[in-house]
Design brief:
Blueprint lengths: L1 E3 H10 L6 H20 L5 E3 L8
Parallel strand pairs: 1-2
Helix pairs in contact: 1-2
Amino acid sequence: MHISIDVIEDALLVAGLEASWTTGAAAYEAAGALSGYNLRLGNTVVVDAVNWASPR
C-alpha cells in the first residue's frame, strides 16, 4: 500500500479545513493511523512524506 501525505492533506483542504500547520499535522497523523492499520493486516506499507526544513 502506498500512502501519500500530500493526497491526505489535499483531501482535508477540499473538505474545508484551512491550510495550516495543524492541517499538515493532521495529515501525518492520518497517514500514521492508516499505516499502522495496514501493517497489522499484514500489508506492506510505503509512506510518501516530505517534511521541509530550512537549511541551517
